[in-house]
Amino acid sequence: MSTPEASRLEALRAEVERRNPAQPEFHQAVREVLESLAPVFAARPEYAEPGLLERIVEPERQILFRVPWQDDRGRVHVNRGFRVEFNSALGPYKGGLRFHPSVNIGVVKFLGFEQIFKNALTGLGIGGGKGGSDFDPHGRSDNEIMRFCQSFMTELSRHIGEHTDVPAGDIGVGGREIGYLFGQYRRITNRWEAGVLTGKGIGWGGSAIRPEATGYGSVLFAAEMLARRGTTLEGLTAVVSGSGNVALHTIEKLQQLGANPLTASDSSGYVVDTKGIDLELLRQVKEVERARISEYAVRRGPSASFVADGRVWDVAGDVAFPSATQNELHEQDAVTLVRNGVKAVSEGANMPSTPEAVRVFQEAGVAFGPGKAANAGGVAVSALEMSQNAARVAWSAERVESELAAIMKRIHDDTYETAARYGTPGDYVTGANITGFERVADAVLAQGLI
Ligand code: NDP
To answer: Is the CB of 178 under 6 A from ligand 1?
Structure first.
């Protein structure tokens, strides 16, 4: 780095690390965006205004709270709740809630920071936020989950609202949890305020295709990247990680488009199925029974095997969809995937590939769709859910799905064109970071020093 713009960005990066100690995921997310911005500063001097970037890397508000709850045996537990309201220049804060023992303020800030630019990419008027808890839902009964959600919402309800901050699901928070959270919000506020949460059930304010949207969108983004290269997903084999909401719908859309997903994983290991994943069986094991993924291999028969604690990226495939969690795909995994001939990687999860892995993909000429762009379909349909709630209407699945496809194509084309404009054609990381940044920065500048 040698230009004045690059030196200034480097100084800001160092300052962010100094002021936010022990938050490695947040540092990583900020560094990744700042590294893309030097050419924008050279081309658009107004962005050099003192304090602009400094405000964008600082959340507008950070809320930390105690979440006490009782398990089925009457024992009291105390978890920590978080909501980071990062940037509302483009609309109400919008972003999911994550319940996982690894959640801390640094993880929530990384997710919230990513969310600002992702939401800007959708073009749908939503700001960025994120939240969650270090609560571990694994092995908890329905009643325990309900009591936890009620206690969490008792505090969170003071801070959210359809025009203020609109949470949704993420790891550990699906339709069941959104139901308990919405019920408690309604009870506390005595308001039918459907637009306060997204990911609700169909019949009480939810949108068709919202559960499917992130996984479907990630596959559609991959299809757009391949189309630019004159090819399609049809007949390709796919390696997918995770077995939650995003992974299951990634597998579903891949199968609809004629590709053959071979794998799925959870935190205990992965399964590889030489006949291709049996989605009905995987759903039964993971969604209905909430069992470990090894159970899939036990029931599927000889085509499937379970590899405990293995790297799913060792399985050869034409396309890869990291859909579990952050930093799950390392440099060596990327080297293995490239050696095995991977053509495209589309990130369903947030920041699943380490910076070193991303570099390997880019240097090898693999079409690489970063999460900010590739997994934006979920939040995009959340924004469509908010529109339906505001108008008190429910759109058909066909309508929502065709809007989703149009949005993913637009995100692809916008990021592709921005990258080309800044002299890095085919670099979707640069394209996504700059496109998102320009939209947020323009709004922040227009709204004065706040
Ligand atoms: P789910 O909770 O439904 O599924 C998460 C999956 O990832 C599970 O298979 C889980 O395994 C696995 N996993 C989670 N943490 C770890 C870990 N530390 N190590 C290994 N495996 C892990 O979450 P989602 O499918 O909703 O989310 C997956 C990713 O997609 C996340 O990065 C999320 O931020 C991102 N995302 C989600 C959106 C959505 O709409 N839901 C929108 C945009 C992005 P196990 O059951 O063993 O924990």
So the answer is: no
Torsion of CA 309, 315, 320, 322, to 10 degrees: 0
Q: What is the DSSP letter of 159?
A: T
Residue 201 CA, distance from chain mean position: 20
What's the CA gap between 14 and 254, in Å, rounded? 41
Question: So which residues are the catalytic ones?
Answer: 130
Q: Which long-range contacts (CB under 8 A, 24 or more apart) does 156-160 make?
A: 156/65, 156/81, 156/83, 156/131, 156/181, 157/184, 157/185, 157/188, 157/189, 159/63, 159/83, 159/85, 160/83, 160/185, 160/196, 160/197
Return d(Cα 4, Cα 159) in angstroms, integer. 40
What 3-state class would DSSP assign to 67?
A: strand
Half-sphere exposure of 100 (CA within 13 A, CB side): 20
Name the token pair of 117: 């630019």
From CA 36, how far away is CA 78, in angstroms rounded? 41
Indicate whether 2 pLDDT > 80. no
> Distance (Å, rounded) from C-alpha 254 to C-alpha 226?
13
Ligand 1 close to Cβ of residue 122 (< 6 A): no
Interval 43-76: pLDDT, tens: 999 998 889 999 999 999 999 999 999 999 999 9
- Whether residue 86 contacts residue 112, with contact meaning beta carbons closer than 8 Å, is answered with yes
Q: What is the pTM of this model?
A: 0.98
Question: Which residue ranges form the domains of the chain, and what is each CATH number?
Answer: 4-56 (no CATH), 61-192 (3.40.50.10860), 213-374 (3.40.50.720)
Write down the pLDDT at residue 4.
85
Q: What is the pLDDT of residues 269-310, one digit of tens each?
A: 999 999 999 999 999 999 999 999 999 999 999 999 999 999
48 CA → ligand 1 middle, Å: 37
Residue with tokens 């002021």: 19
Ligand 1 atom closest to the CA of 348, numbered from 1: 30
Q: What interhelical angle do 24-43 and 105-122 show, nearest 10?
A: 40
Could you identify the atom of ligand 1 that is nearest to the CA of residue 248?
Answer: 25
Run of H or E residues at 382: helix 377-391
Whole-number Å distance, alpha carbon 100 to ligand 1 midpoint, is: 9
Query: Does residue 173 sit in helix, strand or coil?
Result: strand
Position 203 confidence tier, pLDDT thresholds 50, 70, 90: very high
Name the E strands within 6-133.
Answer: 61-70, 76-87, 93-99, 128-133
